[in-house]
Design a protein that fits this description.
single chain; alpha+beta; five-stranded antiparallel beta sheet; 6 helices; 5 strands; disordered N terminus; signal
Length: 163
């Protein structure tokens, strides 16, 4: 009887973990190269050479099914455009990183505004020529003022560039 209960508990635990965590998109070689460039940029502005950001996309998606749509709407708002972007050598793929501050409405919705440990989320996007976009990563970094002003372009400008 104890063995059956343990097996049942294991199955429930296994099923529960898999039902709560959504699969994270797999990055191809090109996406990984641009994602690594984005992380290098963020490490430079934050001054964290060895910091490995906390990846939250797989954990946030089950609780926030419209996460990608909300993150994109946030990026479209004035002043929230990409803080970093790169383009593939064939100019058919654009990669952008947008910031969701802990004190923004969306940041508070995602509970990034903890009193003891506020965090900012950075969304890493793949935008294809023609405008198709996909959220590939959502990384969390400690919230702090960015030391140097970051020249953010508007998401509208970015989308025009992708067309």
């Amino acid at each position: 009887m104890v063995a059956i209960l343990r097996a049942l508990a294991f199955e429930l635990l296994t099923f529960g973990v898999h039902s709560v965590i959504a699969p994270q998109p797999t990055l191809d070689r090109q996406q990984k190269r641009h994602y690594d460039a984005s992380k290098r940029f963020l490490r430079t502005i934050y001054g964290y050479e060895e910091y490995e950001p906390v990846e939250r996309l797989a954990h946030f998606l089950p609780a926030h099914p419209q996460l990608e749509q909300h993150a994109w709407q946030h990026a479209l708002a004035h002043g929230n455009g990409p803080v970093h972007w790169t383009m593939s050598s064939n100019e058919k793929n654009l990669f952008a990183t947008t910031r969701i501050p802990s004190n923004s409405r969306l940041g508070r919705t995602w509970n990034l505004d903890w009193v003891d440990w506020p965090r900012d989320a950075y969304a890493f996007w793949h935008v294809k020529k023609g405008g198709d976009r996909k959220l590939l990563r959502l990384d969390v970094w400690p919230s702090q003022p960015i030391p140097a002003p970051v020249e953010a372009v508007s998401a509208e400008w970015l989308m025009q560039r992708a067309h």
